[in-house]
Amino acid sequence: MSSRHLRSDRGQTLPIYIWLTGILLFAAFALFVFAQAASARNGAQSAADAAALAAAQADRDELMEGLEGAIGVDDTWLDWLNPDEATGAGATAAAQQLADANDSTLQGGAQLTEVNGFYGYEVEIQTNYTVGDSIIPGTETQQATAQATAVIEPRCDFDVPEDPLDLVQLDCDGQPIDIDPEDFDLDDLPDASVLFSVYLVE
After folding, report:
1. pLDDT tens digits, residue range 98-151?
2. What angle do CA 56, 169, 164 make, to 5 degrees?
3. How many CA atoms lie within 13 A of 79 on its CB side?
4. Of 61, 132, 173, 195, which is the most exposed, with the fewest CB atoms less than 10 Å away?
5. In whole angstroms, what is the distance from residue 15 CA to residue 111 CA?
6. 166: three-class secondary structure by DSSP
7. Domain-by-domain residue ranges, the chain?
8. Alpha-carbon dihedral of residues 59, 77, 153, 155, nearest 10 degrees?
9. What CA–CA distance (Å, rounded) separates 149 from 195?
10. Cα–Cα dist 195/192, whole Å
11. Other Cβ atoms closer than 10 A to 39
């Protein structure tokens, strides 16, 4: 084969190499953009999960404070074992605090909701950061959003006594707890997580 033919073949394949290289580079940049977007979505979901849990835990803290102050003082102290008693006063502030900690902003506050008969909070957050610069226009200003819901589930069963000052025996998922309103000490109460379960739901 003559050198003229070799130069001709190389001249024909060079554009193909350039074209394939361009495609590979574009694919690599596109995958990088998708990875950036996935990272932003994951960050947003983590922030939403944390904010929803914080809102529900704020209610649980309120229930515990109410229970501690009512035993032996208020005849209806057992009502504080029902999440309905919580006012939700600190839910939004708690959710925003966790959103801030995850470089995000709470949208519209923590919304009271009910899932499978349990009260809880639904939140929506938006990241303060963007997907970032890329070959795809608009990603430099695109922020990620996510939603999450957390509920409060009472863990204790009990029989309501005829006399509110009688001893009450709680069965908290198999863990027995005795509360005597006439001889009550704060140390008699277990951790809040024993009385109430807080968890994320779909």
Report:
1. 999 999 999 999 999 999 999 999 999 999 887 654 444 555 567 889 999 999
2. 90
3. 11
4. 173
5. 59
6. coil
7. 3-201
8. 140
9. 20
10. 5
11. 13
